[in-house]
Amino acid sequence: MNVLVTGVTAGGLGASIAIKLAKSGKYNVFGSLRNLSKSQAFLDQLTAETSNTVTLVELDVTSDHSCKQVIEKIGKVDILINNAGQGLVQTIEGTDMDKVIDCFQVNYFGVYRLIKTVLPSMRQNKFGRIINIASVGGLVGQPFNEGYCSAKAALDSLTESMNSTLRTFNIRTTSFCPGWISTNFVSNASGVDNGTIPGMPQEYKEMFDKYRARTKNLASNPEMAAFRQTADQCAQDVVDIVEQDLPKARVYTKTVAPLVEVKFGDSSAEKVIETLRAMFK
Predict the structure, then answer these.
(1) What does pTM read for this prediction?
(2) How do residues 114-148 score in pLDDT, each as one tens digit?
(3) One GO molecular-function annotation for this sequence (predicted)?
């Protein structure tokens, strides 16, 4: 089976997913980066962790042409893991609208575009698995992350919506909602510069400083270890979904289960999907 994992930046979740799948020896793994000139760090990680191969492809998920070109090059995608993402830390007042649009372009429209490209082949083959890396932020909104969380909420809703029709063709889609992952994603989030947020109104500074301090505590305090995962641990959760015959529509990590279940109760989305499917069965 051919697997495409987007956003395989070294040290990140996508890289760990691609490498774990390659190590299993069960899949032909393709990993994408927006710019292949930055691929050496991933190749070094791959070499250090396995002798198996991940074929790298250059892919810009915000481009129709790029998506079509990559899928044509691979030939057939049986399993698509939409991991490429972009953060955005700001207040609504301080946000440049172009950055909000960019955030949605990568986190939502890019995923939509790539799914639209692979579906005809999956439908024809009567098999497909699509895993969208969403976020607990798409289920439970977080301060100073309004743009990012709303994009991930849209992605989670898209994933749930698709299941009702696509399961008819043995295509199942899963929204994977992790909590805190110990990578550079947050520090690299769009708008963050050495702990300061350019353009943030002064009135929000005290709130943000307290929020940032609590976030750092979550990232480093040994007593908070139960609330975070390494990229490798989180990748194993994704691999487990890949290897299930009937993956659920929504899976969230144990690190955020208490928060999600307090808000939603049963948050697997299975009851909702079966109710909707009954409308056209």
Answers:
(1) 0.89
(2) 999 999 999 999 999 999 999 988 888 888 899 99
(3) oxidoreductase activity
Count: domains in the chain: 1
- Cα separation of 29 and 45, whole Å? 15
Q: How far is CA 68 from the centre of its chain?
A: 20
CA end-to-end span of the chain:
30
Give the domain CATH number at 242: 3.40.50.720
CA 182/CA 184 separation, integer angstroms: 7
Cα-based angle 164, 100, 88 (whole degrees, multiple of 5): 95
Domain residues for the domain of 199 are: 2-277
Tokens of residue 132, six digits: 């969208």
* CA–CA distance, 275 with 241 (Å, rounded to integer): 23
Q: Are strands 2-6 and 79-82 parallel, antiparallel or unpaired?
A: parallel
Phi and psi torsions of 14, nearest 5°:
-60, -40
Closest CA to 6 of 141, 138, 173, 131: 131
Instruction: Show the tokens assigned to 122.
Output: 């999956």
Instruction: Give, for 251, the enclosing helix (H) or strand (E).
Output: strand 250-252
Tokens of 174: 């899963």
